[in-house]
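Changelog entry: the Ferric uptake regulation protein record was regenerated in this release. Current contents:
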Amino acid sequence: MIDPPDQPHTLETLTAALRAAGIRVTRQRAALLRVLAQAVDHPDAPELQKRAEGDVPGISLSTVYRTLATLEAQGVVLRHQFDGTSARFEPAQSTESGHHDHMIDVDTSEVIEFCSDRIEQLQAEIAAELGYEIVHHRFELYVRKARARD
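Regenerated C-alpha cells:
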C-alpha cells in the first residue's frame, strides 16, 4: 500500500495551482482542497462535497466539479475512471515517490494502491520485445476478496 500524500505540501500545491489558474480560493474551495489533500481513498466528487460540507456548509457540487477540472488541468490532481464507477480523484503528489497501480474491489468499490517492481519490469520487457518503450501506462486489477477455503 502507498503512504498517504504529505498533506501540508499537497495543500500548498493545490492552493497554488488554483491561484495560478486565476481561480479565487474561497472558504468553500479551501475546505475542498483540505479534504482532497487529506483523502487516502480516491473519493468521487459527491463524496468530496459531502466531506467539505462538514467543514464549510454551502459548497455546491458544480463548484467541486469546476475546481477538480481546474486542478486536473493544472496537473496537480489525477482523475481515475475505473470500470463501473464514477470518476475518482487523488492528488498527483501521491505519485511523486514513484508510479503506483490500483486494485479495485468489485464488491465494495474500494481502491487499493500498490507498487510492484516485478510488474513494472515485465511491462518494460514486453514493450521492448515488441520494439517499444513505455511512455505512460495504467494498470488496474479488478478484484474480490478470496473466500476462506475449508
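The first helix runs from residue 7 to 20.
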